[in-house]
Predict the structure.
Amino acid sequence: MSRIKLSRRTVLRGLLGGAAVTVGLPLLDVFKNDHGTALADGTAFPRRFGIFFWGNGVLPARWVPAQTSADVGTEWQLSEQLASLAPVKNKLTVVSGMRVQTGNDMPHGSGPGGMLSGAPVIVRGNSDWTFARETIDQTLAREIGSATRFRSIEAGVEPGVTGESYKGPDSKNPPETSPFALFDRIFGAGFVEPGDEPIIDPRVALRRSVLDAVMDDSRRLSSVVGSADRERLEQHFEGIRDLELRLARLEEDPPNLESCSKPAEPAREYPDIEGRPQMPLRSRAMSDLLAMAMACDQTRITSLWFSEPVGNLLYPDKSAGHHRLTHDEPGDQPQVNDIVKRIVTEYSYYLQALDAIPEGDGTLLDSCCILATTDCAFGRQHTLEDYPIVLGGGLGGYFKTNFHYRSIAAENTSKVSMSILRGMGLSVGEYGIDGGRVTEALTAIEEA
């Protein structure tokens, strides 16, 4: 093999050159049929998956719904902490009684690690951890994300939130926490309204050929380095392959999606009020943007990180930060209870925003599964039993809705993840590792 003259700097120049042409891209070439009930090829509307996550758990006694049957049923009532979900109750699947079975070595870290990746976290020190495996959103992004402009979109509400979306150990996907920046990324320069002609930059062909050359060099480099370096390079080159796909789509026509429209531009700043972030305003701006991003088929995989694990966010009218209250507030913790209810209200807003977007004979929410969960069950004790799980939307009819499943055997939360992956079209025979490994999905919540 001839010696190659490709350095890491050369690869980075290729990435930078490619990134310059990926800002503002047209929509994926997806069309409805004449009746507006499916895509042009006769298939159903695409299914979408999202995560809505917050830190510090819940109060289980006020979270778990009441129902008449022993373990499963449609005769159930929203609990006190879920009451704000009443407008979309008929499109919910609530799962209770499940347990994260990957161990509890890291308070606030083991829960999301087991729930979102099916694996124990790698503990580095006090309040320092990383996920051992990719999270479920990134599994889906890897498998089906290439069908859309963005493999996945990560957004954050709490200023500075880092989220829990991982491609692998020490490889986090940081969320965008500025609604205006997220708007500009998705709907800024280059966004083409549905049905309009795309504006093609005549320099795209040249840039694309340069990128192809970089990819050839990168493959040659991978063939001559060691296995550890090859693994690192593979993750690095994944971004280049994404650029190739985006450049190819720059030459495609935009879709004719009737419900897709450029949303209103959000405020540039959401200043804190007396040291307290304006969480409802920030969350609703992000929810509206993510909803329209999915309506325009910019992505089918999203995550909305409301607040951080162990986060000590100071809410209005509260005597201390959220995390501190979960441990120090006495009695039945009325302030913690109110905070959880406020958070669920924002989740409800997100689901209602999706439900307000028509799609075929139903709404966008009907084709979604928006997983709502947190970093533990009872925040005061960091418990992983009776783990909070709500699925918003029926995922195109895959999940039973207006439905509460109560596990009486503390089943593994990985079963829910396996059901989600199957509902999104992946053929999976198992999910998770070690204590998080399962070979069966939670079929009780599946329609078929």
About this structure: DSSP finds eleven helices and 16 strands in the chain. The longest helix spans residues 227-249. The radius of gyration is 22 Å.
